[in-house]
Amino acid sequence: MSSKKVVTVAVLVTVLAWSTVMAVLGQVAAVATLLPSLGLLVQQIVQALTGPEGSRTPAGTGGSHTPGGPDPAAGDGTEPPR
User: Fold this and answer.
1) Is the Cα torsion angle 63, 64, 68, 73 positive or negative in sign?
2) Where are the alpha helices (DSSP H) in 28-79?
3) DSSP helix, strand, coil percent of the chain (3-state; round to 5)
């Protein structure tokens, strides 16, 4: 596992452990507001541990934009009406 993944997992596990400590100490309201982000946290830990070692597709490769062609995000180049 790369050092970047090790650091990521360490930070995520620390946040999860801190949330558990808050729940044990009776800070249930704080934990309840954090539940959506804790769900995302668990998902990120799983992805970091099971994901491929290689990097993702570099910027500028893949996608629907072709070099020299129109930029789909730019629209037709005209300003919208006011």
Assistant:
1) negative
2) 28-50
3) 55, 0, 45
- Please give the DSSP secondary-structure letter assigned to residue 33: H
Over residues 16-39, the pLDDT tens digits come to 888 788 888 887 787 778 778 778
The residue assigned the tokens 């970047």 is 4
Q: Which residue has the tokens 């597709």?
A: 57
Q: State both tokens at 27.
A: 């800070």
Read off the tokens for 9. 């997992």
Contacts of 34 (CB under 8 A, 6+ apart): 19
